[in-house]
Design goal:
The protein is α+β, with helices and mostly antiparallel strands. It folds into 4 domains: 2-302, no CATH class; 350-440, no CATH class; 470-551, Alpha-Beta Plaits, CATH 3.30.70; 555-765, PPM-type phosphatase domain (Phosphatase 2c, domain 1, 4-Layer Sandwich).
Length: 766
Amino acid sequence: MENIFKSNKKLQYALMFLLFVGLFFVLQFASIKGAVMPFAFGMMFALVWANQKVWLVCPAYFIASIAYSQSFEHIIGSLVTVFVCALPYYIHVLCKRNMFKWEIYIYALLSQTATIVFNGIGGTHWILILVHVIVGLAFMAGCVHIFEPLIIRGFAYKLTSSELICGALIFAVFSDGLAGFTLVGFSFLKLVIPFLLLCVSYTTKGYNASLLAGVLGLGTMLGTNNAVYLAPMVIWALAITALRSRNRIFPAVALVLSELLCGYYFTLYYSYTWLEILPVVIGSLVFVVLPTKWYDQISVLLSSNTERLAMKNIVNRNREVLSRRLTNLSEVFCDMDSVFKKLIKQSLSEEEVKTMLFEEVRGQICKGCPEYKHCHRTFSLDTKNMFEELIQISLEKGRITLLDIPSYLTSRCGKTNALIGEINTLTSQYKNYSSLVGNVDTSKMLIAEQLGGISNIMKGLAKEVDLLVSFDSVRENKIIDELAYNNIICTDAVVYEKDARTMMASLVVREEDVDRMKLQQVVSKVCGNKMMPYEVYPSSKAGLKTINLKTASRYDCVFGLANQNKSGSTVSGDSHSVLRLDGDKFMFAVCDGMGSGDKASEKSETAIGLIENFYKAGFDNEIILSSVNKLLNLEKDEIFSTLDICVVDLRSGLADFVKMGSPSSYIRSSEECKIIEGGALPVGVLQNANALTKKVVVGEKDFIVICSDGVSDAFGSDGEMQDYIMTIKNANPQEFANALLEKALANNNGYAVDDMTVLVVKIFQQ
């Protein structure tokens, strides 16, 4: 059936049109004590606001109105209502301007002008006219309130208490209209309501039929001012629920028998004939003969999304498959790491280099010389030692001259100049070759380190996704219920434990509810610990967003930054980084490109950019620093950078300091100020430079101070800077950083000898 609708738009629109005609026709009969009938126009404007086709809704309303009454006043009133509804709508469309909600209420009020005039001329009391307008607009507001979320979310999600009330109001008014619609004694109320109760009981939870029966029964009281239908409807629902099963015959038979009981035994009706039982029998038969697929579609439409066992099993199954693939990939990268390391050529020792070059010189210069046997046989050892000494001098000084040749060699060797030229040429070629091989080996080692790092990352990811996700359906349902109670629409919720310390929650809510503090409070209350939002992104449905929350870390941090270019320089050679990492970690870094100006700035920004990307990718400290150092060492531009990095774990309060050529850092608490001493060579000086690392525990209200040497050098010593830091009482990290920079400048009489950067981080407990 659904495929037929999708393939035939005309059939779909025709059925919608007939549905609207029937709905409006029934609502024409709905009244308050038979005197006020304001519900049909309110429903029409609500449907238009809910983006239903105006060219379907308005004609359907007019046809239903004419079918209800052909009086002149009623026809004119219906025409005016339809005209005032359709004209503003198309004006807004042509002007490409969205209609505000308050405007639709103005148009709805104006649409009743003709009805008000005719009622006034006809002698209707002004109070009834006022009630007609107020109740109609109120009913319209209720319809709008329920249609908006249903169109956005669909039928499968929990409604708020106010939406449930509005939905019950619509059903009650619909029942009111059916109670007034009879044809030759045939009650359409008894035809439609029993069928609805049977469908609701069969496709949803059984008690829903009893609730619906109570609402529909109260609706009949609204128009008839009599409870004659309330008791029979409740009895019908109880009978249906009692014999509810997958076999539709049993609840249908129970319904018919309960109707006979109401009519003949309890005598709940004023009169009872075979025509009274006929609508109930027809409705029950229709329920029995309709195909099962039809009810399955209704069941899917109305089903709750609280239990999604199949989806959850698929998630865990996919995680298991992903874990295996990541493990296999990590092994591939590990093997590639080993292969690249084996490709690295070992450098020759100094003795091997001298011996190799000696053989080359002897082959090029001495071969064919008349004195060859005398030099290389009689005095072979002395000749070799002398040649290797000359090679050593050339390697160290870059070249040899005639002054470096011993006198006894010049006296007997006729190829002295050729010997000097050959040694200088060979040593120069060897140096170039050695540098090239060294760069190639460095590149190979760099690639090997990256492959090993990727292998470790994949192994870590494999372990993480290998753990089964423990979904918590109880908490999911409770979150949806609690949020609905607080008028926050949550269409879906997933709660699971990432690990022993971290609980995760993912909610799909309306855009206007994302920033409401009550949402975070409810999720924290249900999960039993403080939950903090960490990610918000659009949902697949318009008007909804997904917000992810997780267990809040023990600590959080704020930072302040103060910097000053070197006096006379327009560009700072210092760079900094503040970056949130996965696992509730924060990285703070200051990089000082040696010197100042554009080149120093470019060098420091390159280093800090590489470090940021490596950390975001999840590499270890050792691999990051080694890789960055090798990359910058390949440039051979003699411009180096110092690195000062601090990575704070906000869950454990553990801070990792990593230093390469940087000055000391400081941790100030309320009682003391600790010095984290600097050291090691700057980045890019040597291929295998080692960083200085230190782990420190930080706590609440601690300040971490990182600075470039332009600031530290302005103080006489680390102790002097330590003493001044203890005098700063400001709790704001930005003002703390400003004060420290101002003091450093003051120590140099306001002159910035070098680029100056201060980064201050304050730790606080959440």
